[in-house]
Write a structure and sequence with these properties.
alpha/beta
């Protein structure tokens, strides 16, 4: 797996490269945004790590360029000193898939990288059916079954559910959901997205007993998570 890392702090850049290389990844480090953009025009990377503040072009502008010119297929993780909710929302709106707040913790970095790479490699052909937990998702006939029984979904409900199942574990901002399903921005005052989220949560019974959980990260977005039986088990009695 080839990873591009954009970090202008040389010590931090070396540390990132060492951690990823030791884990078996091929990591190419860049200190200038323009150098990374030039590389992206000629090379293919499986994932991109972006620092936010850079001397030439900030990371949020880099990810906007990447999304506009390469598309959504390459996962992007922001490494940032920013930790306020507004800043993190801004990064997700720019097109990032996830973020890590500095100081860098190697195990967290490796876990986030591995999770995003796994999800990006699923990429089933558009019409190929696939299974997740107790669910069978069939894009061609546009059906989703729970424990073998088809669930009746409205067209936009199906598209929203399919988006979550195809991006299992990935944090999806409200803007991304609106753009992917409705092809437009949905005003914050509108209840359209909230209503559809509530509908698929109830109709598909997205609960731990069925192997998944649809969780919200406050204003950051929503994530469909795979839940193991042990995670759903009640704690042992004292």
């Amino acid at each position: 797996m080839k990873i591009a890392s954009l970090e202008d702090d040389l010590d931090q850049a070396r540390r990132i490269q060492q951690v990823l290389t030791a884990a078996g990844y091929t990591c190419t480090s860049y200190q200038q945004s323009r150098d990374l953009l030039a590389a992206l025009r000629n090379e293919t990377f499986d994932l991109v790590l972006l620092d936010w503040h850079l001397p030439d072009i900030d990371g949020d502008d880099v990810v906007r360029w990447l999304r506009a010119n390469i598309g959504p297929r390459v996962p992007v993780i922001f490494l940032t000193n920013r930790s306020s909710e507004d800043d993190l929302v801004e990064g997700l709106r720019a097109g990032a898939d996830d973020y890590i707040v500095k100081p860098l913790r190697p195990l967290e970095l490796l876990a986030r990288v591995a999770a995003l790479l796994r999800r990006s490699q699923i990429a089933e052909p558009a019409n190929e059916a696939f299974d997740i937990a107790n669910y069978r998702i069939e894009p061609a006939p546009r059906t989703i079954s729970l424990n073998g029984s088809p669930v009746a979904l409205a067209p936009k409900e199906f598209e929203l559910a399919l988006l979550f199942f195809r991006n299992l574990g990935r944090l999806m901002s409200r803007d991304v959901l609106a753009e992917c399903v409705w092809n437009r921005e949905i005003p914050a005052t509108s209840r359209t997205l909230d209503t559809h989220l509530s509908n698929i949560r109830q109709k598909l019974q997205l609960r731990p007993e069925h192997g998944v959980r649809l969780s919200s990260s406050y204003a950051l977005g929503y994530r469909l998570e795979l839940i193991s039986p042990s995670e759903d088990s009640p704690p042992p009695a004292p």
